[in-house]
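Instructor's aside before we start: the two examples that follow are unrelated to each other. I chose them only because their records fit on one page, so don't look for a connection. First example below.
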Amino acid sequence: MGEGMSLTVAERKQAAESWVRACKNKLKYVIIQVGTGDLRSSKELAQHCQQIGATAIACLAPSYTKPTSVDAVVDYMEQVAAAAPDLPFYLYDINFMTGIYLDSDEFLEKAGSRIPNLRGLKYSCKELPKLLDCKTCCGGKYQVMLGSDEQLLTALSIGVNVPVLNGFVGPTFDKLRTAFRKGDMDEAQRQQRIARQIVVITAKHGGGIPAVKSIMELLGLDLGPVRLPLLPITAQQKEGLKRDLKKLGLL
């Protein structure tokens, strides 16, 4: 869960195979993130995803030796996408993690003529005006998926209706979206507040991937320990997490 960059290429291939196998006849879409620290590995993962029957691929730009322009990102992603030409391709932009602050809407505008299988992007950045720019650029032809549990209602209001979120927030989003479509903004806002509270509780008790994995364990799905350099949350933090999530009604 969110630790792909801490796995070897071989491990990521195994994980992708497991997801495709487990989701067969159960989930409609399996999108595999193939971004790594080097172009060759990303292309290798992309090719593997096509071979095993993934639905689509997404890719982060390398974040140690960073691209310094959108043109460089287009050059890089063109090669990754070409390694799996039969699969829809999505850019994955999460700038506060990668440290790459470039305009995703500019990428869509420039990459469209060079990446035939480009379908859109997963936008996990915190800058909401840029989410609108991505949604409306190129006549709105590209699919924009939101990767933020805290901005679901705002995203719906500008036409971004596909979230990529923590699984335990799924029921909350479903209720939020149902209320939004019915025009019941009071209920939609209530569900958004619940999603926000989950984020606050998670941050309060360690935060990040370690806390998220602990929540999944509390819900009955043990995803295993985190990998260094991450550290697991303490027993005291886990008890506090359990207590607060029970109060919220998640457990």
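Example two begins here.
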Amino acid sequence: MQLAGQRGNLVGMGTIFTQMVQLEGPRSLYLGLAPALTRSVIYGGLRLGLYEPCKYVCNYAFGSTNFAFKFASGVIAGALATALTNPTEVLKVRSQMSTSRTSTIGVLKNIVEEEGIKALWKGVGPAMARAGCLTASQMATYDEAKQALLKWTPLEEGLQLHFMSSCIAGTASTLATAPIDMIKTRLMLQRECKGARVYRNGFHCAYQVVLTEGVTSLYKGGFAAFARLGPQTAITFVVCEKLRELAGMTAI
């Protein structure tokens, strides 16, 4: 959200971290935790759970599960999952940017009373695009990287293979989704009341950002996004593979 509508030098992730701890306390690093956890349980479960069935449908219908079909399966799974959980994402973003330290229920009440219940699905278009790209790039890249590593390296099915594949997937997904993530955040923080609306939709937001802040501004917060998404992707796939093994299921 730095320098919205203007160009200039950005404050780095380390400086922001230090300022938050000094001025707001360590608890400020966990603002929006409740809606974030709620979203993770529902959204994370749905997008991972829907990927395999979508891939099986593609295999049944087209007789193939090449990279394109894996990517399409990820897009469908991610988009459906985020369409259902968008309100929790809006609550998380608003809670993180709030200066009043209102509870999650309080933030929800304020949004509904001032902007209407439709505001909980603000930014749902870019959010679905971002989730579709994220799930597709994560799942398809992980799937393909794993097969390539099995074929071209001495690695076998196990922790090391899963970790290396997930690191590749984390990098690819960050590069693919950072611009969409930034646009989604701008839209979710935009208030509809009191004539404060700046962006009409996701495309208009992207156009305005590039016009006023430059093309590279689409990757604002990119390193912070990777610092979150990289470890998250690794943990997700390593744990998922282990749980599938314990449940007697085949590996991804």
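The two ends are 37 Å apart (CA to CA).
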